[in-house]
Design goal:
By secondary structure, this protein is of the alpha/beta class. The protein has nine helices and 14 strands. An eight-stranded mixed beta sheet has the order 5-4-3-2-1-12-13-14.
Length: 269
């Protein structure tokens, strides 16, 4: 039987309207009551995960939360969030990356902890940052945990491979991927959800064969490959579906709920 569930947020348990289906929320709470450990794993920083942390009630159980695509792991104990470290680019790496990517897209943003640094303004992201209580600052020459380029899908399609090729010349272990069609995300070496889970499971003595992981974006690849059972959403990138052990319905069809209920019926959960 599976003992651990790793869940991506956007495009996986969060539907297109920004909501987690109540049936899934109720099921996740029920599973945690039974002793199943639910680990939220997101590309978001910990501040913008807050509403989903509260909805899934993971703070009421001793678990872990992985944010910033594995760059930050937070331990949840007795309803408190305890930071366990943050993986960042150094100032030199940020400068080299900025030289490659600046002015390529309508928005260029760097995250340092919970703070956002803008190269040029993009109202949607500025508004979103303010919503989560972190008013953005100008300039991104800071030790950053994540750098994001935003534009229309067609523009991202056009520039993605060239940008990835140039950034990997800086360090071939840098992660360059697309979590959604309108973004390019760049994170430091070892800052992946799979790496974060591996460190966590080794530290706690957990067996990854007892882990189910659900995801849809390219930032979920390592997580799905690491888990004993990696499940891709039907709305996932094709590159994600290829490495997954199984595929469930889309996020808007409540695919995680349907899959978990089926595992319960089969007495595997």
């Amino acid at each position: 039987m599976y003992k651990y569930i790793a869940l991506d947020l956007d495009g996986t348990i969060v539907q297109s309207n920004g909501v987690i289906n109540k049936l899934l929320l109720d099921l996740l709470i029920e599973l945690q009551e039974r002793g199943i450990i639910v680990i939220l794993c997101s590309g978001r920083n910990i501040i913008s995960m807050k509403e989903y942390i509260n909805q899934t009630k993971v703070r009421e159980y001793n678990t872990y939360i992985i944010s910033s695509n594995g760059g930050n792991t937070v331990y949840v104990k007795d309803n408190e969030l305890i930071c366990q470290g943050y993986i960042t680019f150094n100032k030199k790496e940020v400068k080299a990356i900025k030289k490659i990517v600046k002015n390529k897209t309508r928005s260029l943003v760097a995250y340092s902890g919970t703070q956002m640094y803008f190269h040029k303004i993009y109202y949607h992201q500025y508004k979103r940052a303010c919503k989560y209580g972190s008013r953005p600052k100008w300039g991104i020459f800071k030790p950053s945990g994540k750098i994001i380029l935003t534009d229309k899908k067609e523009k991202i399609d056009e520039i993605f491979l060239d940008i990835k090729k140039e950034i990997l010349k800086i360090n071939p272990q840098i992660n360059v991927f697309r979590s959604v069609n309108t973004l390019i995300e760049i994170t430091p070496p070892l800052a992946t959800k799979g790496e974060a889970l591996d460190k966590l499971f080794k530290y706690q003595g957990y067996d990854e064969r007892d882990l189910i992981a659900f995801g849809d974006g390219e930032n979920d690849l390592e997580m799905l490959k690491y888990a004993g059972l990696g499940v891709a959403m039907n709305n996932a990138f094709e590159s994600v579906k290829v490495v997954a052990d199984d595929i469930t319905l889309s996020n808007d069809e409540n695919g995680v709920y349907v899959y978990l209920k089926n595992l319960i019926y089969q007495k595997k959960l």
